[in-house]
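Recap for those who missed Tuesday's class. We walked through two folding examples back to back. For each one, the amino acid string is listed first and its predicted structure tokens come directly after. Nothing is annotated here on purpose, so try labeling regions yourself before you check the end of the notes.
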Amino acid sequence: MGKYSNRWTRAAIPALLLHFSIGTVYCWSIFSQEIADYIGFSKSAVEWAFSFAIFFLGMSAAFLGNVVERDIHKSSLIATIAFTLGMVGTGFFIWYGGKVFAETGTGSVPALIGIYLSYGFVMGVGLGTGYLSPVKTLMLWFEDKKGLATGLAVAGFGGAKAIASPIMQKILGENQNGEIYKMFWILAVVYFIMMFVGHLLLAKPAGWHEPDKSEKKPGIWETIKTRPVSNYIGIWLMFYINITCGLAIISQEKMIVKCIGLAASVGIISTVSAIFNAGGRLGFSAWADYMKDRNTIYKMIFIISIAFTALVIVTGAIKNGEGNAFLIILVLALIFMVNAGYGGGFSNVPTLLSDHYGMGSISAIHGITLSAWAFAGLTGNQMATYIVNHFGTPEDHGGVMVNPTGYQMVLYVTGVLYIVALLLSLFLVKKSDKAAK
């Protein structure tokens, strides 16, 4: 009984404390317009802070994976300090930018760069190390249910937006003077406490022996080469494509919803999407525990995404959906299933990698694989924005300017990419050692 109680207090609860905190990075869209207005820059200029945060999340995970491998207490402390320091810095540069804008009527470039550095780089380092730190520990404590354990934590990362959004909106609403920077300072204190408690609780099982520095341990590349290299390339590419497609569609989600006549329900649909995102992280990974080959989950995710994308394209549901209940349901089903598949892709990566390459260097290999997230963070949103800006013509739908042709074109591109990902999953990613037993 002790082992089973310990795995909740030493792995699951600290993982949730860490991931519920850092997952609020996805709340950026809630206040990005307010920040832009407060410091005197366009929303598109401010949006780069989020793209940088995701990029440095992936790159810090890739470069600091070995630190996580050696010492989860050091890595979780780095995560706690970097994430909350990044929030404090973001608040400071918003305050400074607002002050300059109020005095001169011109946006301050140093303030914008400061936000990029604070929210993008500093918080990004906290995101990457915080995301990685509990994953191996969870798989060690929950050897019989690795997918359920990692899915629980990663669902915390995905579901943080649903929990934090109304809290942030309440804080913003209470700031009558629009002093948005205060929200970052308040939340920095809250998240520091949560993450520091998680850092103190997090611990690997007593029976797990981590090789010390004097023992020779295979490097990441040597471990990857225990399987065909094409196998790892396939995993990296299908992970990258799933994130790119997910971000491309999710970034246009609000405008697509407005396009089909549901402008008044954007907030509710956004919350439901976040629930599907979190549910996909937990559900798909827990389901994979009962499969011989976890790669089957990716095949299912891609097939479902291709099917719903094709249905929306063929019916022209985004263009013709307003007033048509069936087409509206079809578009919402696509949005919800893409969110679920996007989340499921994240939660299944560490367990799929452990099935192929073992637990010895899983944090380092998982970290390198998260570099796919870094590049997708730069390409997904930007690709969709480029397509919408260059295809179709904006139309007035009840006072809201939308571009149904542009959104449909995004689906053509993501549909093709999903097909490529399915082919990679079918032909490059081999059955794991777990499946062979």
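Example two. Treat it independently of the first, because the proteins are unrelated.
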Amino acid sequence: MAERAWNFSAGPAVLPERVLRQAQQDLWDLDGTGIGICEHSHRGAAFDRVIAEAEEDCRRVGNIPDSYRVLFLQGGASLQFAMVPANFLGEDQTADYLVTGAWSQKAIKEAALYGTAHTAASSQEENFSYIPKGSAIGYSDSPVYVHMTSNNTIFGTQYRAEPDIPDGAFLVCDASSDIFSRPIDVTKYGLIYAGAQKNLGPSGTVLVIVREDLLERSARSLPTMLRYQVHAEKGSRYNTPNTFGIYLMGQVFKWILAEGGLAKMQERNERKARLIYDVIDEGDFYRGTARAEDRSLMNIPFRLPSEDLEKKFLSEAGEHRMSGLKGHRSVGGIRASIYNAFPEEGCRVLADFMRDFARRNG
């Protein structure tokens, strides 16, 4: 069997090896049933246990109160861009958006189809290199909700704390690229959503954590599949869900718990990121693209002195079995994505390579 590469992909991204090994077994035979996880009925007893354990372990990982519902949906974060305003934003109402990157730009565009979408803050004028705070935020008079993107995969910025929001509004968060990478106070949010393919599991599945009282709100009549309340009432099984995606997310939750929970995740993620940021900061060969105070622990984009050197860097990194380091097509450069499951040793390997490459090409 070929040696596994160091997978720096921004998503779909690296998964815990322990989870992958368990999935290998359960694809063939889940719990001695003689039937693999992908073959079990989504309404059978075997999958009843899978989805119940996934929700229970998710609640344990995130310390999610009983007043919140945990949903396993499809369509990824991109569908949530539309589902949130479709469910909660009336035509004569306003939602405020904190625009800190490409994904929040997409989210506010979808919101404008349903009501007034107000840009309360944006860091676009500096190429999304920072997180707007304090007086840089100008909320509308009475927003229904405030939407934020907690971590920005393309530009490498991350919120350190939740923003203060107007009274009467609830906070919505796209946490796709840093969900469960650190402790979270779920009670500060009305709704959290996250595509699974970065920190939770495979692509095609999305986790939604929504305050139960919000499910009673309805801004308009919607198709059944777009209503959060329906998915909550049907236990995420109104239709056939992504059974393998839910199973794999459940295995990742078990892995997080076994590793010591979110406090341990944060400690390890900080160590991992420091290994790479230290190389960026110790000279002028590499240039980080995000302000130091807003740097992401999940995605580390940086530039080299020239595009030719960046191409050479990527080529040589590939020869050392480092994959997925090319920056997003919209910005170029280099990007190291080091989500929860990315090994600390891989960050050391990259850091050593970066120092050597700078020595030889600086």
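Answers for example two:
The radius of gyration is 21 Å.
Residues 17-258 form a domain with the Aspartate Aminotransferase; domain 2 fold (CATH 3.40.640.10).
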